[in-house]
């Protein structure tokens, strides 16, 4: 289990993470959401020991993380630039290096992933495109088989099929070798099927944490004739509206009471689940 | 878990690369010598001139330690391991390269003798043309200290802000002090003219340790920012 206690990350006068208390049980896939500048990368860097906490503690199974080999060797953080070696190094040399440095690195699995992502082992890291570099970061991250593996926007630059491949491989390997994953992303709808729990970080504070279904149940979509929908949602918290001809869909925040549900049924309005992204935007202050 | 993985990785990958670079420099020196001999009279030791370049190349390579540190941390190692094992790598690699340079001096002596050329060394050196043990020690001292200075300056740049100024100041002091001890970058006012193998070797140790202390100060809690150069 990775835990933080009153964790604070500061850059001069700017506080990126405020007194964060967090406990993430092992063996689950967590999604870390937050707007730009919410403190996601600062939090992940500190969890991985890339950065010393300005205050508070980070522990893995009770041991401090920063400068503790027993902890850092069981943690892997892949950043958004896939920087897992020097730009002049060949990919095969970087994988050899990872096998030397990481006790649990699975060379065979890395070879399998290299083939799946169609990466040329003879190329240097600096010669890869942005998407290929991200894919190589994913290879190094998954093959590390670290007890806590974190990807910070590791899909940047990947095309849709490659992102799908990343998701498929992650789930397959998670099934075969259960461990903890923490994925930071802005692709909320696309990646949310991976998450068992979601953490929303906002302005350096943990705004919301819970199961994806719990988060989804905090909103409801109402679809029907525009004028009827407008009357129905009067006085409720509207997150988003979409109109298609005479039909309108409105996303509401919060659950509906029995009276509203009966009204919806009487007027033939359709009630359905909402997009996580709409809830996320609402919870983090709405569209600027 | 593999013992000393950072030192092992560096010694198996970076040391052969540096030895190849040295071989390339020696080859370039040999070509330059041939061209010089065809055009004019040879009077200077080409190995000796190349040694000056080696000094600055060692700084440059040492500077790249910041990137190595970042990579090691990304792969789950600690700063403490890096500080210790990079120093071990520096001492061993400097020794190996110094041995190769000494061999180049010996080979050059034979070539010059056969060709009947005059072979003058730069006068500020702490060794004579045939004093191979002293050539080895002077180069070992120069390479190890230059690698260490480059390393702590590089890590200070990773750290940023005031650390850079302190590191540059420490680097200047160490370069001048080391110049007095091993004869490289000798500016006159810092010349000690030791010409004693035990003294050069003995005084090199505290200078290397001082550089190591500066590396420790710069690296012990530095934040890692990863970036692949385009």
Report on this model:
Chain B: Keywords: Membrane, Transmembrane, Transmembrane helix. The complex is a heterodimer of chains A (288) and B (230). Chain A is of the alpha/beta class and 288 residues long. Chain A has 2 domains: 213 residues, 3-Layer(aba) Sandwich (Rossmann fold); 67 residues, Alpha-Beta Plaits (2-Layer Sandwich). Helices cover 34% and strands 30% of the residues of chain A. Chain A is built from 11 helices and 14 strands. A 6-stranded mixed beta sheet of chain A has the order 6-7-8-3-9-10, with helices on both faces. A 4-stranded antiparallel beta sheet of chain A has the order 2-1-4-5, with helices on one face. Chain A is globular, with a radius of gyration of 22 Å. Chain B has 230 residues and is mainly α. Chain B has one domain. Helix content of chain B is 75%, strand content 0%. In chain B, helix 1 packs antiparallel against helix 2 and helix 5 packs parallel to helix 7. Chain B is globular and about 55 Å long. The two termini of chain B are 33 Å apart. The chains are: A alpha/beta (288), B mainly alpha (230). Chains A and B meet through strand 6 and helix 3 of A and helix 1, helix 3 and helix 4 of B.
Topology, number of strands of chain B: 0
Low-confidence stretches of chain A: none
Rg of chain B over CA atoms, rounded to whole Å, is 19 Å
Low-pLDDT segments, ≥5 res of chain B? none
Count, helices of chain A? 11
Please give the domain count of chain A.
2
> What is the structural class of chain B?
mainly alpha
Helix amount of chain B: over 70%
* Spatial shape of chain A: globular
Keywords (chain B): Membrane, Transmembrane, Transmembrane helix
Keywords (chain A): ATP-binding, Nucleotide-binding
InterPro entries (chain A): AAA+_ATPase (IPR003593), ABC_transporter-like_ATP-bd (IPR003439), P-loop_NTPase (IPR027417)
Pfam family, one (chain A): ABC_tran
């Amino acid at each position: 289990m990775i835990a933080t206690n009153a964790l604070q990350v500061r850059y001069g006068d700017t506080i990126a993470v405020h007194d964060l208390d967090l406990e993430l049980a092992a063996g689950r896939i967590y999604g870390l959401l937050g707007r730009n500048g919410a403190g996601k990368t600062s939090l992940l860097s500190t969890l991985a020991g890339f950065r010393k906490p300005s205050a508070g503690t980070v522990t893995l199974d009770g041991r401090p993380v920063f400068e503790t080999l027993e902890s850092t060797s069981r943690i892997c953080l892949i950043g958004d630039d896939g920087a897992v070696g020097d730009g002049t190094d060949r990919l095969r040399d970087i994988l050899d290096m990872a096998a030397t440095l990481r006790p649990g690195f699975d060379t065979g699995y890395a070879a399998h992933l290299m083939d799946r992502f169609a990466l040329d082992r003879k190329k240097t890291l600096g010669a890869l495109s942005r998407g290929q570099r991200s894919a190589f970061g994913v290879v190094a991250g998954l093959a590390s088989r670290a007890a806590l593996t974190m990807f910070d926007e590791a899909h940047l630059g990947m095309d849709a099929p490659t992102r799908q491949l990343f998701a498929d491989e992650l789930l397959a390997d998670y099934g075969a070798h259960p461990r903890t994953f923490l994925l930071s992303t802005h692709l909320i709808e696309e990646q949310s099927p991976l998450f068992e729990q979601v953490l929303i970080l906002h302005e350096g504070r943990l705004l919301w944490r819970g199961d994806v279904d719990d988060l989804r149940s905090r909103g409801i979509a109402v679809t029907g004739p525009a004028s009827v929908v407008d009357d129905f949602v009067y006085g409720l918290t509207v997150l988003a509206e979409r109109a298609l001809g005479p039909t309108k869909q409105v996303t509401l925040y919060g659950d509906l009471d029995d009276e509203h549900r009966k009204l919806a049924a009487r007027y033939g309005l359709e009630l359905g689940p909402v997009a996580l992204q709409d809830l996320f935007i609402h919870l983090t202050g709405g569209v600027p | 878990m593999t013992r000393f993985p950072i030192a092992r990785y560096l010694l198996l990958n970076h040391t052969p690369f540096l030895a190849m670079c040295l071989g390339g420099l020696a080859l370039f020196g040999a070509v330059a010598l041939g061209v010089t001999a065809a055009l004019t009279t040879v009077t200077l030791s080409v190995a000796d001139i190349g040694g000056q370049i080696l000094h600055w190349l060692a700084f440059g390579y040492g500077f790249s330690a910041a990137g190595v540190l970042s990579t090691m941390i990304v792969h789950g190692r600690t700063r403490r391991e890096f500080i210790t094992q990079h120093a071990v790598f520096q001492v061993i690699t400097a020794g190996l390269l110094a041995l190769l340079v000494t061999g180049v001096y010996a080979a050059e002596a034979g070539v010059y003798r056969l060709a009947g050329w005059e072979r003058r060394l730069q006068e500020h050196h702490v060794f004579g043309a045939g004093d191979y043990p002293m050539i080895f020690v002077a180069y070992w001292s120069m390479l190890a200290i230059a690698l260490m200075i480059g390393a702590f300056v590089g890590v200070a740049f990773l750290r940023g802000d005031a650390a850079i100024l302190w590191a540059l100041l420490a680097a200047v002091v160490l370069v001048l002090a080391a110049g007095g001890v091993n004869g490289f970058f000798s500016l006159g006012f810092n010349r000690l003219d030791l010409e004693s193998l035990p003294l050069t070797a003995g005084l090199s140790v505290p200078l290397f340790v001082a550089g190591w202390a500066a590396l420790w100060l710069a690296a012990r809690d530095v934040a890692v920012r990863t970036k692949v150069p385009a």
